[in-house]
Amino acid sequence: MNLIFRLIRVLVLSWLRPGLHPLDPSVLSFRAWPLDLDINVHMTNSRYFALMDLGRTELILRNGIARQMFKRKWQPVVSGSTMRFKRAIKPFQRFKLETQALYWDEKGFYLEQRFTAKGKTLALGVVKAVFVGPDGIVPPEQICRLVGADETSPVMPDWLSGWPDMETAIEARLAA
């Protein structure tokens, strides 16, 4: 893993920070180091996704899902993602990654992951994450119940309403 020291930091901080409700945001602070950069001397696109993995890790550690995950031999899996880049992250720039659950359907959680600096959004990712156990996909309602959260999903944000149609179209394309 190329982010091992950042992962260790996330694990330690998650243990020291207070717990979160599954709908509360997780916020991590980072700095763009030279190994995060591409030939254009800004953070490479793939690094955003790698850091998003750390954001989701911190979220599930702090909201209690990780404890249930390890106990039941579940694995967190990204089933889909999309990303929009607005402003480049430059060398040595400090920035934050905010990770928050938006809503869930019968299979997975939809998360917003926002990169910010000085109050401005630099990039925005949306991820559908599922938990897979020995018997298949674990329903989000079951996960919420186990961590003592309301099992009722918030309403899907209007701006995300096209996602299910996109997933259906991609599934059909994969089957072709």
What would you say this structure looks like, in words?
The chain contains 5 helices and 6 strands, in the order αβααβββββαα. The chain has 176 residues and is of the alpha+beta class. Strands 1, 2, 3, 4, 5 and 6 form a 6-stranded antiparallel beta sheet that branches. A hairpin with a 2-residue loop joins strand 4 and strand 5. The longest helix is centred in the first third of the chain and has 18 residues. 26% of the residues are buried.
**Assembly context of the chains:** single chain
Distance between the termini: 34 Å
Number of helices: 5
**What is the ordering of alpha helices and beta strands?**
HEHHEEEEEHH
Largest sheet: 6 strands, antiparallel
Give the helix/strand class: alpha+beta
Using only C-alpha atoms, the radius of gyration works out to 17 Å
- Tally of strands: 6
- Provide the low-confidence segments as ranges: none
Bulk shape = globular
Bin the helical content: 25-40%
Strand content: 25-35%
* Residue-averaged pLDDT: 94
